[in-house]
Design brief:
The chain crosses the membrane at residues 12-32, 260-279. The chain has 24 helices and 25 strands. The chain is of the alpha/beta class. The structure holds ligand C2E and calcium ion (2 copies).
Amino acid sequence: MDRRNIELKIFGLIAGMAAGMILLAGFALTVATRHADARERDYEQTLVGNGLRQRIEEIQTGLNPYVIWDEAIHKLDNRFDQAWASQNIGASVGGALGYEAAFVLDAADKPIYAHVAGKDVSSTTFDRYAFQASSLVNDVRAIESDPKKVAALHAVHKSRVELVRGEPVLITVSLIRPDLKARTKGPRGPLLVTSTPVAKIMVKAFSERFLLRDAAIAVVAADAVDAAVAQSVLGRSADGRRIVLRWVPRRPGAELLRSATPMLAIAILAAAMGSFLLFRTTRRAAKKLLLSEAEAKHLALHDPLTGLANRTLFTDRLVHAHALLRRKPGHIGVLCIDLDRFKEVNDTYGHDAGDQLIREVARRLTAICRDTDTICRLGGDEFAIIQPDTSPAGAASLAQRVVDGLSGEVDLSIGRAVLSCSVGVSVVADADQGQAELLRQADVALYRAKEAGRGRFAFFEPEMDAALRLRKSLERDLRAALEHDELTVAYQPLTDARGEMVGVEALARWNHPERGEISPGIFIPLAESCGLIGPVGAAVFRRACYDSLRWSGLEVSVNVSAIQLTNPDFIDEIVATLAETSARAETFMLEITETALLKDGDGVHDALRRLKRLGFRLALDDFGTGYASLAYLRRHPIDKLKIDRSFVASLPGNGEAMAVASAIVSLAKSLGLKTTAEGVETQNQMDALVKLGCVEFQGYLLGRPMPAEAIASTPSMVRVR
Ligand code: C2E
Ligand code: CA
Ligand code: CA
């Protein structure tokens, strides 16, 4: 997913959430507002409803003096008096009380007096009201006919709002009754029917009493609903419509909402701003996340120390190069590069220096290669290059450039290191050959380059495979042999000029379960190149320590590889072995080669001094084959030189060999060192060496390497003539 996409998603989410919250709050507020408003309306309606009933009662009560009156029975029922009616009903009820119309009905419900709009009018005017009043009249008569009800009531009134000629009026029918002792003619009394427009008597009064806004009388359809107004039903028209008092109710919810609106606006603004800020921080976080994802991706595919491709990316590119080869014929080259003696730099100068060197190598490789090449650090000091679209000549040229580029001195913060490398090259034109195979072949070629002496490159050749396989299997077997303590030690006598044994040299032996005896000339270099020389040397030394305890007065020589000397733990291990076996350092002569001194470095020099301090003596092995530099002999605490057997072999016939041997002996003498001649096979050689002044001898003539048990019982083999 790309960044825009993620941003859009985050934005959508936050905006959606904010909008949702605002909507929800808005909805809740609206519901609450509506609810509050509805409750207020209901309340007002109930209040007005009660008020209405009260008002009607008031109106009715106002009529009582006129309808509970002996004189009215006399003048209206016993004997109708038009003038009395006009004065007491018309002028009082219609005039003083303010009724629009007032009628008197006789016991038979026939109108006998009518007063409308301030004037006496013909009784027939009642016809306008007859229909609307009829049910009220019936109701009153029903009460009148029930003596119990009449007795319970002080006055009998029935009122209702009716539509008369389109105008809502309150019609009240009241039974006229005596207040003292008057009697009606018949069983029924006369009735007073009054009518007054509702608007006049109610709207104003209610508006004032209940503070109603825009109160008005209206005639509405029965099912009419209007949420904006409140209404109280006053009555019903003949056609079923409702006569109502309606007004605009107070809306506390809406008012609250209105007064809260500025606050709400601020809250919404704040929410929007908050969302924006949230979006911004989230976007930043997401950006960081994506960056770190890219970083992680880079880390997953690159070596952290050098920034070069790692094995994963390398394999990927190799697969890719193979795919290209299928489409476009050509060659792919793979170079495996191994730094020569990198481990020594690491061991001598420390890991920081090692890292520095690796980085420098990466820098140089990057400068040597083209952009299309993939440079990879496979691990440790191993590098590889994929050269797509090349030729064998192109690969060879690159390999040479790498060998040249990675040779010479390198300045490290801690000192100078000498850099060189070996390169194995594999070139294929065949897309069907697996990419893993390509890398393996380059690796095989690399082994060959190293074997051939390092600082060079080698192309893969099919016969290398067999040799490498053998080497690999030997390496595996050597490891197993060490684990199972299968290496043994043979001892070869060292004698004085009379053939008297004065010492022995411990020589490692490996009897391979299938291959038989394997020469140390093979497995010692193998152990040195695959990092096993430490364990091999330690095993031999431990064995020699134990064996030395059997012999008294015999000096035991033990070979120490140059690689062992550069190991910082070497001396501690030696000391531990001495302690473990109770052997004495003074018994031992440690044989080192000149190449060990060549490695030089203060590390080796210090190691030699410490060994000397521990009581060991030191011999320079194979002397004469290397530099034979006098400076080394002076500098290091050497006790003895061993003349290499290649010189001894050509004695005494070869004049040059005689000269070298003679020179070595006199050199040793002048430095106060002993000399031992190696590889003495004949009596003639022995005699010649004795003549030259050599004092110690080793060779088949004097004794072959043999098991420790055989040493104790060995008599002197040769007599001096
Ligand atoms: P080196 O230290 O020069 O050991 C002497 C070698 O010469 C031995 O070979 C020995 O068998 C051989 N030799 C002795 N007398 C004669 C002779 O009269 N004629 C001939 N032609 N050879 C003779 P070996 O045992 O095969 O060892 C070969 C090399 O392996 C040794 O050479 C030494 O460099 C190395 N080596 C053996 N054991 C050890 C060990 O424990 N540690 C280390 N670092 N190297 C060892
Ligand atoms: Ca030796
Ligand atoms: Ca030797």
